[in-house]
Structure formats: structure tokens, C-alpha cells
Amino acid sequence: MGRLSDGGWGDAERKSALHVAVLGGDGVGPEVTAAAMQVLRVAVRDAGVALELNEQPVGWTAVVQEGGPLPEATLSACLAADAVFLGAVGHPAAAGQPRERLPETGLLALRKALDCWANLRPVRVPPTLVDASALRPERVRGTDVMILRELGGGLYYGEPRGDEGGRAFNTMVYSEDEVRRMARLALALARGRRGRVTSVDKANVLEVSRLWRRVVNETAAEEGEGIEVDHMLVDRAAMELVLNPTRFDVLLTENLFGDILSDQAGALVGSLGALGSASLGDGTDLYEPVHGSAPDIAGRGVANPLGAIDSVVLMLRHTFRMEDAARRIERAYEAVLADGIRTVDLRLAGKEPVGTSAFTEAVLERLEAGAHEPSVMAGGAR
């Protein structure tokens, strides 16, 4: 089980079996999850380890089946696993439901129970997807940003919160310790990348952001030798992501800002469907594509599985330390994209888009073709 301690990566453990709790969730979640698990099976098959998948309901599916968005059996399976894979949660039928029955309430409870406090959302625009970006090629080419979002605090969890007497309120709260562990992790990530951290806040108006900036500065002064650290207000950061995305290396920010900015970054690649994420901390690691449940296209077989497949890459890299297997998957899907095989959200002009199954099969074919390359467990994480 991958654990973070003092801003660094925990030691890898060589395992004879990988135990993954699989939560397909709602909408297109089960479709992209099934695709991702196909790729995971092939990737680990030659690594000398077994793969054990435990499928459980979550989200609105769990509300319908079990009466709540995070059933006890689902949570128990997740806590017992080496890693958790989640497709997506959310359904129109949940509108107007009490808070305890909302799919998103189950997701927040899961992240808290797994002690996931750091969310990694890599946004890389490979040459094969420059044409799919919402930005001009010369502006987006070379973009490689690691968005590091604090996941366990802020407005999403702060108390008091409520809606009463015609007045609703939420509370943004962060402690020095919560900010410091994020700053340490940002520095650790930057050391393995291009050596730059941009911390995003709203320090001109928010006391919480002023604390955030102060603690980031203190941590950088004490532990950031060789790392360039700067600060940017969130409104400017949103603009810079569009105007000059290649200026960012590691982008560090709190929960709400990170949620918004990482979704905005989907436009750099051309679709949220292309982005994966890793939620890490001191418990069980959680992996999920960045996109939502997209109930309007559920069951049509057109959802893009790339974000789910890339979440498998992150799982192999950060939890199971199987770097070679992770890179084999990356090479496989980039070859597919280079061949012009894409789902409708990334379609090339003049080329017919393919569905979820056809894209996945194309990735599997290229992965199988590279099966002679050994997949080994490695101690490092990228």
C-alpha cells in the first residue's frame, strides 16, 4: 500500500498479489472502469504477480442497491485493498436528495476514510493530442503540469456548515500542518521534474490563503534547496493556464481551487476524458479519472476510457511501483492516438471516431505487442 510520510514516497513492497477494490460507480463509470481493468490485467500479467479485483457499488448505484452512497461492505473492501479504483459518481435522480444520500457525499466520505489528502492530477499534452487542444498548437505544445490539490480539508470538509433560515454557509479551514505536508510533497515532486513549484492562493483577501502562503514559504526556506518557488493568485493562475500553460511545472493549491483549475486544464488536452488522477495520503490510495459520470452518454459505448487507463498508469507507478508496466501502457495508448484512433471527444477532422471498446481493444493490441518487454517492480516513483 503506497503511503506518504513527511512529503515523500513510502517504500515499495514486493507483493505476490495486487488487491484492488473496484468501484464502477454511476453513469459511464462502469464502462470506463471495465476498460481500465482490462488494461491493468494485461499490464501485470507478465510481472510475476496475481491480480485480485473486488467489485463493490458506490454513489447513486449504491443508494439504489443499498440505501446509501458508501455502503459498509464497500468501505470495508476499500480499507482492506492495496488500492482503490473508482469510475465516477453522480446521477440526475440524486437531485433534491438529502445530503446523506448524495453520491458526492459518499465520495468525500471515502476520501476521508482512506486518509487521502493529496490529489495528483498530471496534465500532459503529448504531440499526438496537440491538435485536440482548445488552444492554439504553439501555445499548448510542451505542456506538462502536475496539479497538486490538497484533498482532505478546506471548504469541502470545514465546519460549521449548513443551510438554515434563508442563510447557507461553509467554512474554509486549514492548519499549518496540513499546508506543510502539501508543501513538502510539492517540493519532492518538483525534484523529480523541472524544479519549479507555483503555489496558488487568494492571499490578497483570504486569511486562510495568507497562512497557506506563509507556511509554503517557511517550508521552502527550510527544505526547498534547489527548487524555485513562487506564488500566484488563483484568478491569475486560471488565466495563465490558458495563455501560457508551459510556464507551470508543479502547481500546488488547496482543495476548491485545485478542483476548478484541474478541470479547466482539461481544455489543454482537449477533454476531461483524457485525464487520470491519484489520491494519496497515509492510508489506501484511490485512483479515478477526472471526468464525471456523464449520464447523458451512459450505455452508448462512446465514453473515452483514456482517463481511466491513465489512472491505472498512476496506480502502477505510485502504489505498486511497477514503472515499466506503467510506461508500457503509456506507449501503447500514445501509439493508438498517433494512429488517429480516438473517441468522439478527441476526434480528428475527417476521421470517424471509435467507441469505448474499440479504443480499448486498440490499446490492448499494442500492449500485447510489447509484452516481450519485462515489467518489473521499481523502487522509485515519477
- What is the count of distinct domains? 2
Q: What coarse outline follows from CA principal-axis ratios?
A: globular
Query: Spans with pLDDT under 50 lasting ≥5 residues?
Result: 6-12, 372-382
The assigned CATH architecture of the largest domain is 3-Layer(aba) Sandwich
N-to-C order of helices and strands: EEEHEHHEHEHEEEHEHEHEHHEEHHH
State the secondary-structure class: alpha/beta
CATH superfamily of the largest domain: Isopropylmalate Dehydrogenase
The CATH class of the largest domain is: Alpha Beta
Average pLDDT across residues? 92
Structure explained in plain terms:
- The chain has helices spanning 29-45, 60-66, 72-80, 103-113, 137-140, 176-191, 207-223, 234-243, 255-264, 266-269, 306-318, 323-338, 356-369, and strands spanning 4-5, 8-9, 17-25, 50-55, 83-88, 116-124, 144-150, 162-164, 167-169, 196-201, 228-233, 250-253, 276-281, 285-289.
- The chain is α/β, with parallel strands linked by helices and 382 residues long.
- Strands 4-3-5-14-13-6-7-12-10-11 form a 10-stranded mixed beta sheet, with helices on both faces. A two-stranded antiparallel ribbon has the order 1-2.
